[in-house]
Design goal:
The protein is flat and about 50 Å long. The chain is built from three helices and no strands. The protein has helices at 3-21, 29-48, 85-98. It has 102 residues and is an all-alpha fold.
């Protein structure tokens, strides 16, 4: 178990807890969706604690950080990008170099 995996689990559980305790009455669809997303993140992080490829699903960086944009419907990752922040960052940098940006 790595510190990054444990931190991801704690963050996801904290977010879910904050959202749940902030609910009053019947939650809106948006509020319920945010809570479900936080709980899914927590569940994925808990599964990753014992997984061979960790939360990233990456064989190169099994204990690396998960890209925070993974699964974000408002700012989706380009096709071919996975959960691994390190690999996605490498792809972003390579794309920027191809396009003449630094």
């Amino acid at each position: 178990m790595s510190y990054a995996e444990l931190r991801e689990l704690r963050n996801a559980l904290g977010t879910a807890s904050d959202l749940a305790f902030g609910l009053e009455g019947t939650p809106s669809g948006r509020q319920a969706g945010e809570l479900v997303d936080a709980l899914r993140r927590a569940l994925a992080a808990a599964h990753a604690l014992s997984s061979e490829h960790g939360a990233t699903g990456c064989s190169e960086h099994p204990r690396g950080a998960v890209d925070p944009l993974h699964g974000d419907p408002e700012d989706p990752l380009p096709p071919g990008y996975g959960r691994c922040l390190l690999c996605n960052d490498r792809r972003r940098r390579a794309g920027a170099l191809r396009h003449g940006r630094r």
